[in-house]
Queue: 2 jobs
Job 1
Amino acid sequence: MIGDVLTVAWKEWRELFQLGGSHRGGRFSLVLLIGVFGVFLPLQSGAEWVQSPATVFYWGWVPLMLVGSAVADSFAGERERHTLETLLASRLPDRAILLGKMLAAVAYGWGLVIVMLALSLLTVNIAARSGAWLMFPWRFAVGAPLLALLGAGLAATAGVLVSLRAPTVRQAAQTLNVGILLLMFVPALGIQVLPESWKAQMGAWTLAIGIDGLLWVAAGLLALVDLSLLAAAFARFRRARLVLD
Amino acid sequence: MSAPAIIRTEGLTRTFGSVRAVDGLDLEIPSGTVFGFLGPNGAGKTTTIRLLLGLLEPTGGRATVLGFDTRADGGSIREQSGALLEHHGLYERLSAEDNLTFYARVWRIGGEARAARIRALLQPLGLWERRGEPVGRWSRGMKQKLAVARALLHKPSLLFLDEPTAGLDPVAAATLRDELGTLVQREGVTVFLTTHNLVEAERLCSRVAVIKQGRLLAVGHPDELKASRATRAEITGRGFNEAMLALLRGRPGVVRAQLQNGRIVLELAESAETAPLVGLIVQSGGLVEEVRKDKGSLEDVFLTLMEEEP
Ligand SMILES: Nc1ncnc2c1ncn2[C@@H]1O[C@H](COP(=O)(O)OP(=O)(O)OP(=O)(O)O)[C@@H](O)[C@H]1O
Ligand SMILES: [Mg+2]
């Protein structure tokens, strides 16, 4: 089973990193993204980049777009390019196909986040030119990759669900992008419109559990959502339905 | 020699809304057969393959393939089958080699065995030199050959081919046919093949079935099917005349008798024998040089079947 998952992921990666073709635009935005998070933003914030406690939460969002664009292609792309039925006619079990596609997307998004984190650390240190090497506090060094992984999992599971049903890659990508934007703005705007008393309550509560507590709560919630979406994807994967769509 | 049935369907039915794509199909296909499934567009050929692979649920009846029920055990059927479906299913961004490597890994063929098998399949097809190119740049025929290679990778015991030679030039199609023929003999593969090409069916298949609108019209060896239809006999010689034709027409089993370019052309019912007819011509003063009996092609059978049935 694990072998089958890796086989599917291997193929997805092969396709993702194939030179030329339709992915040139994608590669440019990738370089741009790495530049923004690995160089530009760290330069702007300087030492704050490694020291500010709140930045750890951004890293849950960064992989969303990356994973989303990769996973939109997973089933919708195979359907569009008429490779899905042959894949379904192979001996691969349902779960291996699903997990392999998700694994490829998660590894891709999460791997890039790790690259960005490392690059940003390098940028900050080069810019600071202080004798001592600036390092992320442990909370960040553990929290950021963890949140990024769970964020990637969220995008991958939600993305596979959308891609299973979408007739074209374009439609899958659009649906996902709208979803991701909502996920980014709704909480931010939502907090603004909450009654003052609630905000005060939440502030007090945050203070009480501290940044570390908040980190674990966020990670726990994300993990829960990831697992529910995964279960939904397993339940929705039906060869017969996929063949007919 | 009665081989056990590798595919057996009983009243297999699949409807889409009001369309009966496959309608009460009863088939029994012995192991080692190359089975040709013929029918016009929309007859239900592709749907049947999907049902047999357990990719679609039947709405009625049942099918067992390789001893497994398609409804309950599709996974076991797919494990031992190879398929070239309606679309070639190749990843066009990937190279030919990557395409085969992927499916070899899917079928757990590892390491050196994988490399050797890929080479053994690609070389005779003339694709080995170009294995590094993205498949998207290949011609349709090259893709089709690659897809056949992919279906054979894991030496399946049952092979489904949905119009395998569609889009191939006559030479490539003939090569592929030969290779399929050899393979069947060498590896004992059972082949379930759909085609519109009746010459192909006649050359390759030891059994054919004709379906239309999901219903089975005829099954049997191509020769049996042809034998059930009128036979043509062409008699070459000298001294033929209208009087002989009138005599011939009076004989039982002669459906039609005509003179064409100095030859006598007879259309005979199934059971009619030619020897007494030749005797008749000779007695009436005709000189017979050659008698050619032609069962008519499978195409004739097919076209008559299509005309007869509503
Ligand atoms: N997913 C589907 N939804 C609705 N109808 C379908 C579907 N698939 C097939 N059909 C119908 O079932 C019938 C048989 O289709 P099928 O594809 O099996 O024919 P075929 O014999 O393979 O034809 P062709 O020679 O053109 O490939 C057709 O009338 C077709 O419209
Ligand atoms: Mg078809």
Job 2
Amino acid sequence: MILQMDHIRKSFDGVEVLKDISMSVDSGEVVSIIGPSGSGKSTLLRCATFLEKIDAGEIRYMDKAAVTTNNEGKAEYVPHKELKLVKEYFGLVFQQFNLFPHYSVLKNVMDAPVHVLKRPKEEVREEAMELLRRMDLESRADAYPFQLSGGQQQRVAIARALALKPSILFFDEPTSALDPELTGEVLKVIRQLAEEKMTMVVVTHEMPFARAVSNRVIFMDKGVIVEQGDPELVFGSPSQERTKQFLRNYQR
Amino acid sequence: MSFSTMLSSMGVGMLRTCLIFILTLLISLPLGMIVMLIRRPGPLPEVPRGEGTLKTLAVRLWRGFLIVLRPVMKIYIAVMRGTPLMLQLLAWYFGPYYLFGMSIRGYRFPAIIIGFSMNYAAYFAEIFRGGIEAIPKGQYEAAEILGYGKTQTFFRIILPQVIKTILPSVTNEVITLVKDTSMAFTLAYNEMFSLAKQIAASQTSFMPFVIAGVFYFIANYVVAFVMEFIEKKLSYYR
Ligand SMILES: Nc1ncnc2c1ncn2[C@@H]1O[C@H](COP(=O)(O)OP(=O)(O)OP(=O)(O)O)[C@@H](O)[C@H]1O
Ligand SMILES: [Mg+2]
């Protein structure tokens, strides 16, 4: 197991947004998370990546505990140093890209490996250029984010995440901030990564993409996982009424 | 008194004016940054679990420091912005004598520098705070996911962007400072403007004021030029 989340609970101001959620992700798996707005998809990813603290539950990466629950039922995070190591297992691609505007494309990709992991610059530069090649952005290495289209920016963000060689990559609606004609180029890159057996969890509203690319689909509603399984099953013959209803609304 | 004698007797005053200006900037800019770091709203730092004792101790100290100093900084900024600079200069200079009966001989120049620096640090702190608050949350989150530490995030990601956004406001403040240096005459410090007044009175001539006006104008022209140059340097991104 790359990621294991058990009995996750998370409230905002007394309102429970994640209600006893358990999920796991195996090596090489591509998992799509779908569900209506406000169902807790982003919150789940933010908890998995420690941007939000869970109230109760357990999170493990590569069988290493990052969060456990103590006797009083409260979540306890491992000490800072250990948590920092666990953080190296994952990457996250944001809906709004969040590139560093004052760095060139190449520097956006290189900066963390060089200044966080303290790896040699020349080696990192070669890898970064290779990543940009894969993202079809080689010629834009010296451009600044504001000079790029949204689709290009998101591909830089993906390259930036990959430069740290994560074992699992999370995406939170990677194409939702893009013009419709630009979503294709980003989805293509994610599909390519799936073919290379990159472990990924993708929150998305792109149903055809989720159906075609993922090994497993999770449907969330109101803070619980309503249904999950093979995409053909979930999309083709959903067993839960709420799933059917949600997918019907998408058909139009 | 000829024009050139006037100019040369005002020359030493010009140097003093420049000295006030430069020292005030050198002190108030970093001081404003420190005030902002203390006063900035947001949660108190959490004491890390299971960290080496030295770091835990440092975080604990900083936490306690913040709890005490945050309200103090708020009052400090309110007073600095809410009272005339002239009054503040008088208070800094005569305060030690009236409050503690201390001798204030030779204290004139330090009092001026302290007065200006404390006043400008308050304004700079507010400008910095505005700049920091304008940085989207996503920048912090991206940095955190990529593994940057708190210090690295601030110096590599946040600060460069803050500097760019606050530059126009800082320029305004610096230009005001050039003109405000004339307020040192309150403490009878012989910087350029005080000398201009003295010479104007003794020679019954308006010329010294013209010279002073031209001096301030040129000084601010240089300031604007330098700041514009920096702005241009930083215009490579948006
Ligand atoms: N920081 C926060 N403070 C308070 N409430 C929050 C916060 N973040 C999320 N919520 C609430 O938690 C619920 C779940 O939000 P979340 O963003 O996880 O939904 P989502 O499934 O990602 O929706 P969308 O498809 O619109 O992105 C919502 O009701 C939201 O208002
Ligand atoms: Mg969301």
